[in-house]
Request: fold
Amino acid sequence: MTVLVTVASRHQATLEIGQAIGRALAASGIPTDVVPAEEIDAVTPYEAVIIGSGVYAGNWLAPARDLIARCAMQLRERPVWLFSSGPMGDPPVPAGEPAGVAALKELIGPRGHRVFPGRLASGDLGFGEKLIVKAVRAPFGDYRDWPAIDAWAVEIAATLRPAGVPEPSNPVPVGAATPGGR
Reply:
């Protein structure tokens, strides 16, 4: 079984989450490709798909939404999970599901959707983005929860592992390999 982890990420923070998920799946013995959403034309080569998007102004990025719209029939035929990255602060704000995710879930029927806190770095932002951040008073910082991301990926791996195939005896602690050593 080969899994596709595909991500729409404006400043690479969500891509790094997708890469951590891919490493955790691979460490669990599941072949995985991590590919930006805008590079995917079809999901037919994959038996399962994980789609993630950064959340900006409360919405998923267009490349992830467009991928789901283009490949909806293919996605309905295989196990799919969704994740969002974007809430900031401690506790993360805004709470709950981003706008539009309910419609995406209804369209493809994923097995689950997780919202992970994101990262907001001033140096990554353009002038317009800085104005929006200032207007909504979003806090700068890296709020990504690597242990929660790793645990979710391990849950997915357990679901995808064929019956009778044991979990690797010495899985790699994925969180240690993520950016910042977390």
In short: Strands lie at 3-8, 32-36, 48-56, 59-60, 80-85, 112-116, 119-120, 141-142. The longest strand covers residues 48-56.
